[in-house]
Amino acid sequence: MQGIFLRKYGVETKVDFVLFGTTGVDFKSDASHAAGDTTVMKDEGDEASTTNAFVDEGKGYSITLTATEMQAARVVVYVVDQGTKAWLDTAIVIETYGNASAMHAMDFDDAVRGGMTALPNAAADAAGGLPISDAGALDLDAKLANTNEVTAARMGALTDWINGGRLDLLLDQVISDLATATAYIDTEVAAVKAKTDNLPSDPADASVVAADIAGVPAAVIGATLSDLSDTDIDLGGTITVAKAIRAVFNRFYRKVIQTAAAQTVYNDSNAAIADMVTNKTETTTTRNST
Prior knowledge:
The chain has six helices and twelve strands. By secondary structure, the chain is α+β, with helices and mostly antiparallel strands. Strands 1-8-7-3-4 form a five-stranded mixed beta sheet, with no helix packed on it. Helix 4 packs across helix 6.
């Protein structure tokens, strides 16, 4: 048996083959076809005599199969001598192509697209054809230049946003700086809170207040409150920061009696605080501590 032949589905075709003499050594070159010597089987169906006999072509032979005989995925032609054996039996195997029912659906005779109808014709720049990069209607260069297409500049901008790109690194730096600033602010707030948390429960203790704010630079709040005069509040002598804080605290926290002649602040024992009496004159009122 010879190799497998490829032929188009449903199309009349001629197939060449050779026959060997009964010794199997030499070609049989003078074989004569008789009825029943050649049969055809389509897709493993029933065998039937071929429409045409084989033809002597010299050293070999040919047989023409009709379009109907070629309507199968697989066609097998058996060449068997029906009388006294003059040649060795042989078979011709044909696989078809170019049809949905063929062995191979691709159409090898279609030079445009191989029978694959889902693909466009390979007609450069034609309607429905394949686009190419030239000055035609489907010029890829022109498409790329359109403002609504992806351009090199736009790709560069996208690259900048990719992790590690220029814009991404700038954002990372901003986030880092914000974190640093936040940590610094938190530290400063904690320091201020620590100072205020240490204020004494009895503001009359000027030495404790002075000790708690001793770490505050003199250049910031001044060693004394020189912008106040002794005529404002009777704290005695130079008005220090500690005295000023104590005075404010007592006037808002302690019992205060305002008469037409003076304002007096009382401690928890309901005794007047000596240096918390002012000559501020107002209508007589009394405000108890909260």
